[in-house]
Specification:
The complex is a heterodimer of chains A (140) and B (176). By secondary structure, chain A is an alpha+beta fold. Helix content of chain A is 19%, strand content 26%. Chain A is globular, with a radius of gyration of 17 Å. The N terminus of chain A is likely disordered. Chain B has 176 residues and is of the alpha+beta class. In chain B, 12% of the residues lie in helices and 29% in strands. The N and C termini of chain B lie far apart (30 Å). Classes of the chains: A alpha+beta (140), B alpha+beta (176).
């Protein structure tokens, strides 16, 4: 009688991380693999940005991104795209933007006045990979 | 012009900043504080105060109070990013480069006149400021430009308090 629950528990424990976020291992924890660089190593910004977390980006993908955001424990929390407002017009498209961060729980879209790296007003499109209640992990 | 740059430890300077800014015209020796501000999601950024009237020789210190962003204080001058001249012709331009949170930059203003400045990554969001030193003549109003210089966006031009308002009030603040 005990073997079935134990086996199920072991199976669940082994598979839950993948089911929960479906995040590639080389992306799930900071620093992400590949061409991603810490944003703070590319431009003069704090390493951890309140409300977003620690950001990494492939410089070749600027300005749109994706930017991968991680919490203080190095776990991925969101994928962020930064779209200059002047580029949101009939003559410009953002297509086939990479989305390596796994399952999306919810999405935020909001205006940003600019910062080093994207030095003009733009829109942040945030694909949260965690529940709204866990956004607090990157609040400060 | 004398410029310095340093890191401010903690927030001890915040209350001091308010006190000093409140006395911008009261006496000539103290450092006048300007905060580089931003709200939590980065949708609003501004200099606080946006307008100052100071005496010749006074020092102004800008401190980045925005935990989530970097800012600059950069004079409009052809020698700095080829921008129109909007400080007195006899004054030297200033440029802090990027300041991380709690970092500060200071400049002394010995030359009378009107000084317009901006934040490099936020000019297009209207983050500009103006300092009036002494009692400049009417013809000292900024605005000269050359065809080969990068003009100011309208949102920046609209962000400067008028010289008259600064002279009348001493300190001009904007709502966040």
């Amino acid at each position: 009688m005990k073997t079935v629950p134990v086996a199920f528990a072991m199976l669940a424990a082994a598979s839950f991380p993948a089911l929960a976020h479906d995040v590639p291992e080389n992306i799930a924890k900071a620093p992400p693999a590949g061409e991603f660089k810490a944003v703070s190593s590319l431009v003069k910004l704090p390493d951890f940005l309140p409300g977003m977390g620690q950001l990494f980006v492939d410089p070749a993908s600027l300005p749109a991104g994706p930017f991968l955001a991680y919490d203080h424990d190095g776990a991925i929390v969101s994928t962020i795209y930064m779209l200059p407002i002047k580029d949101l017009n009939p003559d410009k498209r953002f297509e086939d933007l990479a989305a390596p961060g796994g399952n999306v729980d919810h999405v935020d879209v909001y205006y940003n006045a600019g910062h080093p790296g994207v030095e003009e007003p733009h829109v942040h499109v945030v694909l949260w990979h965690v529940a709204s209640s866990d956004e607090a992990k990157v609040a400060q | 012009m004398i410029i310095t740059r340093r890191r401010v430890l903690g927030y001890g300077g915040a209350s001091l900043a308010v006190l000093l800014a409140g006395s911008a015209r009261a006496s000539g020796d103290e450092v006048i504080e300007v905060g580089m501000q931003g709200n939590a999601d980065g949708s609003h950024v501004w200099f606080d105060p946006v307008g100052l009237h100071v005496r010749p020789g006074q020092t102004v210190r800008w401190t980045n109070r925005d935990k989530g962003n970097s800012h600059t204080v950069t004079a409009y001058h052809p020698d700095v990013f080829e921008r129109p001249l909007r400080i007195p012709a006899a004054a030297k331009p200033f440029n802090s480069d990027y300041l991380l949170p709690d970092e500060a930059f200071s400049a002394v203003f010995p030359v009378e006149g009107v000084y317009d400045y901006y934040c490099v990554p936020h000019e297009h969001a209207g983050m500009v400021g103006r300092i009036v030193v002494g009692r400049p003549a009417a013809h000292d109003a900024p605005g000269s430009a050359g065809a080969d210089l990068v003009p100011l966006p309208d949102v920046a031009l609209d962000g400067f308090p008028s010289i008259e308002e600064i002279l009348a009030r001493g300190i001009v603040r904007r709502q966040a």
